[in-house]
Structures are given as structure tokens and as C-alpha cells.
Amino acid sequence: MSDQRSMPVPDGLEGDRLDSALARMFGLSRTRAAELVAQGQVRLDGSDTAKSDRVVAGAWLEVNLPPPPTAPSPRPDPVPGLGVVHEDDDIIVIDKPVGVVAHPTVGWSGPTVVEGLLASGVRLSTSGAAERQGIVHRLDANTTGLMVVAKSERAYTVLKAAFRQREVDKGYRTLVQGHPDPLRGTIDAPLDRHPAGDGRFAVVSGGRPSVTHYETVEAFRAASLLDVQLETGRTHQIRVHMAAMRHPCVGDHLYGADPTLAARLGVQRQWLHAAHLAFEHPTERRRVEFTSDHPADLHRALEILRED
Questions:
Q1: Is residue 11 among the annotated active site residues?
Q2: Domain Pseudouridine synthase RsuA/RluA-like, which positions (predicted)?
Q3: Domain 171-273+299-307 is classified in which CATH homologous superfamily?
Q4: pTM, two decimal places
């Protein structure tokens, strides 16, 4: 069953192409938005439309959105390299390897944290969506490092609230191109989906508030190793903020990294690792803290830079 939406065009989209405006309003790709227009599923002020029409603020928009695709249900499936850092009756803290996402999702056929834990016999919280058992925060597929997963229902509720209220300390290490100026600082820039609708995110006026603190730990000729602390946890936040400073994460080709440097360092993904995680235990009410060393591929890249 389609989802019928009726609303005025927001002021901030005045003059945008219709397909671009739809993509920004409903989180669609521009291709999918253009298909809806071509199928006659979009009307402006009661009239048929074309994807290249320019929208006017306040015009009445009517859209029939298709039902969202359903994520596959999780099934036990072993994940090699999924390390357990800590486990008790309420939580499990894991060290996620590269190439693994948090939970099953539409379009992903690779390994997931949820399925790997289920295959290991770990009982996870069933709160939330069925495919997201126990998941209270996520890392990108090619970002390695620490994740906490809820085993009990109480832990799920408390941890979700702690992440939402920014009570969890999330520390990352990233190797970026060049040398940030100043060497330490704060990036406060709102993020939203890239207007191109191609899966990227971008600094966008009116986007969701996003704050990143960084400090240079070690400087090399062509790159800098940074400690990063997140106040917010937006999708691709560190990657987008660093790229916006013109210092993309090494190996992050999606956001403009130099492929030559990545090849020289043997880096085949963004150099980004969740190295520190601290929060109040959801049932024991004591502060717990966990750390993770750089995985082998990231460590080797640093060795090459230090040998230069």
C-alpha cells in the first residue's frame, strides 16, 4: 500500500528541480524521485508534473510514496574476526572487523554484527525492529572498532537513551590527508543527505546539527593522525566533516581522498577506527570504558609513514 503525502513545498526548496526537492524531502535518490514523477505519482497544485519543473515555496505537493522495502530477518551466520571485548548479562562489547555492518538491511548481502552474535549463541534484546536486535548504535561497514550491543531489554532502553542524550563518549582515530589548521579544533556543521541523492552525505544548511572535536596526535609529510571525539553520531559524520575541511580520511574515495596515497600505504578503505568507548553500565550504574588497538591494515599504513 502506498503512503500518500500532502504538504506545502518548504521555503528552503524554492527554485529546486522537482526531482531534487522530492529527494531532499523524503530521503529518496533522485533517480527514484524522477521515476515517481514519470509514473504520475506526484502533483503540484493539482497539476501533473515533470521532473525538471522548478518548485515554488508554498505550492501544494501531493505524492504517493511506495512502501519502504522490508529488511531481511536476521539469521545466525558466523562472522570471522568478530572479537568480544567484554560480555555480561546485559551487554556485549565487540571489536568489529572491516566489511561488516551492524544489522541486516535492504541491499546488503554481506556479514552483520547481529547475525554473527546470534551464530555465537549470544542472546540479544528483541526491542526495536526485528532485524536490529540489540543494536543501539552503528559503525560504517568499512569502519572498524568498538560497538556495544544490548543483550537485555533494560540495557537496550537505557543505552538508546544514553546515545540520544549524548552521554556516551565515542573516541575515534583517523588518518587524514594533509595537516589540519588549527591542529586541534571543533567542526560544527549540519549534515544531511547529499543533494545528488547518491548515498553520500554533505554539510547542508538546515541539516541535522553535527559536532566533531579533533586533535592532531602525530603529523607526517602527507598526512596527520587525529584523535576524534563525537558529540553527535550522524551517518558518515567524521568522513564528511574531514572532507569539508579539505582533509579527507585517507582511503575514503567516496569523499575525495587521493587514491595514489592510499595505494602507497596499502589502504583499501577509509582509515577510520572506533578506538574508545565509555558509558555508564545500564544496570550496574558504574562507568565502564573500553579501548581497541588499530587493526593490522591501519597499523601498517602508519608504519610506512613513519619510515618515510
A1: no
A2: 90-244
A3: Pseudouridine synthase (3.30.2350.10)
A4: 0.79
